[in-house]
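Supplementary notes for students who missed Thursday's class. We covered one full example, reproduced here. Read the sequence, then the structure, then the short commentary at the end.
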Amino acid sequence: MAHQVITFQLADKLLGVDIMAIREIRAWTPTTRLPNAPPYVHGVVNLRGSVLPVIDLSERLGWGRVEPTERNVIIVLEIMGQLHGLIVDSVNDIVTIEGAAMQPPPTIGMGGGENFLEGLALVEDRMAIVLKLQGMATDLTPADLAAAA
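Structure (token representation):
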């Protein structure tokens, strides 16, 4: 079975997510930080009247916190019925990964990180990390988000 993913850059890494989860790609907007939010939640932004939690994907994956600039973008996607934003450096392309080309993530040395990985695939001679979106969801409840509005 083929997977269609949108690829994007995060520092020198190539990552991808299922295209069906993407709702929009928007320019960087400064966030409002929430008290006691997990460290990987950069904050929230107003998305047409709704509160959108914005995840620092680099921090979520254990690669260190990003201080976004106007060059960054937010990928808005739906995870388990809720919209989330991911901070990335840039969006690349839509690619099709054939089922046999998607390799399972390694099971050693991941420290629980395999919960975030759907698999690995070669895209234009580079290894792409395809994310499992369920692992990206925040621990923020709807009540937390309503309080931030």
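Commentary. The chain is about 5% helix and 45% strand. The first helix runs from residue 57 to 60. If anything here is unclear, bring it to office hours.
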